[in-house]
Structures are given as structure tokens and as C-alpha cells.
Amino acid sequence: MTGPQTSSGDPARPATRGQAGDRTIDPTAPHPPTARDPAMSPSPASSAQALLPRPIHAVPERPRPRLTGGAPEGAASLEARGVSAWFGERKVLDRVDLRMPAREVTALIGPSGCGKSTFLRILNRMHELVPGSSLAGSVLLDGEDVYDQAARPARVRLRVGMVFQKPNPFPAMSIHDNVLAGLKLAGLDCDDRPGLVEHSLQRAGLWNEVKNRLGAPGGGLSGGQQQRLCIARALAVRPQVLLMDEPCSALDPTSTRRVEETIAELGVDVTVVIVTHNMQQAQRVSDSCAFFLAAEDEPGRVIESGPTTTMFSSPTDDRTMDYVSGRFG
Ligand code: ADP
Ligand code: MG
């Protein structure tokens, strides 16, 4: 293993993600492979790669396209400290502390309504866009508070990108232009736009399926392809963190598997925080999990967080065990 830098010079194909053969995963399997079993991999950050499949991408010849005005290079860590949230008078999150290490995949799990989406939106300053919302606490992005007075929300959202539940490409816009759409919005410049389109689609695992029809409208793709197009669009501005709110809940099992493969391949230069209701998916894609729960008429809290293998095999709280084993929620 050669670590995050690729020895081949291929930015789309991290060296850590190409070693374990071509196994496939079945999203409907009752006992999926535990990709996070520490006995099977040397470190938590690389364990996702150990079992997940590796599609063979074409190796781009040209150097990695350069962005001007973008986020700092490389994945960033996130840490929530004492995060609470309100909609009007109603408190919906209570003092959440959570570390989301760089280059890892953190899954947020828990029943509906316990504040997972709200928490996710707090991480990139989207919560404040909801009228009547408020929050307390801090969110550290590589150690700097994104709610610091000097922090600019647009800059935070550039560094911390988001993929939503329902794929939302611009339907009439071409696949090519969809990938570049965020660039214009963020006012970024790129020295090699075709290269950036290819690189982003490669990272999102969509390149081979669309490389011969980049001018076709994004709305003509299947649901799973549209979601990967949205991932490519989010990646094109090179965020350091990618937030994903139930990105597979509108997809069929085959598309779900493909998006999960994409997530597993991302971890080397982006940190992922994903909300999922699918416990098998949490096991397949995440390094660590946080279990959110809200008692009746109370705000949501993190009951427990930790390595995914521990959370699913020997959590400390009975409620976590009940939830991950499907007894409620
Ligand atoms: P989850 O993603 O875990 O299902 P949410 O973060 O969406 O939970 O919601 C947490 C609580 O906040 C819920 O009770 C929900 O009804 C409430 N809520 C979410 N969005 C809004 C909003 N825009 N206005 C008022 N209440 C909201
Ligand atoms: Mg939600």
C-alpha cells in the first residue's frame, strides 16, 4: 500500500483502493461482508477498500486539472462540539459531540426525526438558511470553527459539499455542463475543463457509462446515474468533505450498490459523512457510526458513537443494540 499519493500518477485511482480484486457486494444480503473488520485490514481508513469492489477505470493520461480559488488540497476533519439546534422555539438537537476524522466515512444512523439531516446541514452552514432556525456550539473544520465571525458561509460550503437524497441534476443541461455547474456558482477557474469533467466523472464512477454522450441531457440518465452525476458535480469543486443525506434512498438495489462502491472509492482525498437508514449500508460503507435518538417530545442526541464494527457487534448502550439489530426504528 502506498498511501494517499498515487504512484501511477493517476488522480482518479488512489493506490489504496485497487488491491483487493473484483468482489461485488449485494445490498440486499442479510449478512453483508463486514468491510470494517479490523482483523482484515491494517487501519480503519483503509478497511473499506479491503472488501469493496474496484471498477476498472481508464487511466487518464493528462495531469490532474488545477482549480483556482478552490478549497485547500486534501481531505479535512470535522468535529462537532456541543451542537444544539432549534426550529423556532423547538429544540431538535441537544449538545452533539462528534469527531469525523479526515479520509474516513462516518455514518449517521437513527430513526426518522431525530435530527440527522439537521446535524448534517449544520456541518456546512446550510441550517441557517432555514427561516427561524438557530443553533449553539461549534463545528471545527481542520480545527477552525466554521461559525467563527471571520468564516464565510459560501467558502465553508465550498469546502464541505453536499449530495441530497433525491438526485437533482439540471435535467435539460448536458452531462458535461452539469459536472461543471458548481464551478461557475463558486466562481472557480480551471486550467483544463474537459480534464476536470473526466476526472470528476471517474471519481464518481460514472465516466465509462457516459464518456460517449457528454452532450446528452443529465435528465436522461437513470436514477443511479443521476445520483453519481450529482456526486461528480459535488466533487468537481474539490471539497474536502462530502456530506450525503440518504443518497441511495431513492435508488434501486443495483444503483445503490454502484453508489456504495463510489463512496468506498472516495475516502482517500475526501472525508465523507453519510446519513443512512439502511443498517447493512452503514456496515458496508462506514468506518465509524454515530447513533442519534430522540425520546418523545425531546431533542435528538447522540447516544453512542464509535467504530462501525463495535457499534454493530458490542455497543455499550442497549438502545444502540436494539436499533442496529432492527428491533425498532
Ligand atoms: P432526521 O433527518 O433524523 O429524520 P430532521 O433533522 O429532518 O431529522 O428533523 C429533526 C426534527 O426537526 C424533526 O422533528 C423535524 O420535524 C424538525 N424539522 C426539520 N426541518 C424543519 C424545518 N424546516 N422547520 C421546522 N422543523 C423542522
Ligand atoms: Mg433526514
Layout of SSEs?
Elements: H1 44-51, E1 67-68, E2 78-87, E3 90-100, E4 105-109, H2 116-123, E5 133-141, E6 144-145, H3 153-159, E7 160-163, H4 175-186, E8 189-190, H5 193-203, H6 207-210, H7 223-236, E9 241-245, H8 253-266, E10 271-275, H9 279-285, E11 288-293, E12 301-307, H10 308-313, H11 318-324
Parallel strand pairs: 4-10, 4-11, 7-9, 9-10
Antiparallel strand pairs: 1-8, 2-3, 2-5, 5-6, 11-12
The protein binds adenosine-5'-diphosphate and magnesium ion.
Describe the fold and architecture:
- The chain is of the alpha/beta class and 329 residues long.
- The chain has a domain at 67-169 and 241-324: P-loop containing nucleotide triphosphate hydrolases (Rossmann fold).
- It has 11 helices and 12 strands.
- It has a 6-stranded mixed beta sheet with strand order 7-9-10-4-11-12, with helices on both faces. Strands 3-2-5-6 form a 4-stranded antiparallel beta sheet, with helices on one face.
- Helix 4 (175-186) packs parallel to helix 7 (223-236).
- The longest helix is centred in the last third of the chain and has 14 residues, at 223-236.
- It starts with 43 loop residues before the first helix and ends in a 5-residue tail after the last helix.
- The relative contact order is 0.20.
- The structure holds adenosine-5'-diphosphate and magnesium ion.
- Adenosine-5'-diphosphate (ADP) is lined by residues 87, 92, 112-118, 130.
